[in-house]
Every structure is written in C-alpha cells, then in structure tokens.
Amino acid sequence: MLLFFCLYTCIGSHGTYVAAIAAAYQPDCTDRNGVAPGAKVVGIKIGDSRLGSEETAVGLIRAVSSYFHNIIWHRNEILEHRK
To answer: Where are the domains of the chain?
Structure first.
C-alpha cells in the first residue's frame, strides 16, 4: 500500500492584495475602488510552499482544473435536486 500526504500552506497574502487592487468596491469612497469595482474574483492557489511559493505550470493547471471540476459537479448536483 502506498500512501501520500501533501501539506500545502499559505506563504503570503499577495493574491489577496492583488484581488483588492482589482475588485475593491467602496460605494461611499470611490477613490478606493479597484480597477474593476465589484468584479467577481475566484481564488486559486498555484504557489507551491515546497518551492518557496514558486508558481508552476502544473500548479496552475491543477488549480484551474479543480475549479472547473467543482463548478460542473455542483451544477450537476443542483440539477439533480431540481428533478
């Protein structure tokens, strides 16, 4: 029997910072709005803590693939409940 255990941890908050620049929405203080105020943001983690949070093509492909897999799975689950 072969078991794998991978632990990925957050190295920093750069993605949160970038998301705020992009999609921040402050209706009472528009000078604090991002470049696309109120945009929908999807968080995917592509940095690998084993590589000093280095991004890899494999990490990007896995994250995007997982995101779309979850969308399709949840959509199918919702459609099943509507029957």
So the answer is: 14-82
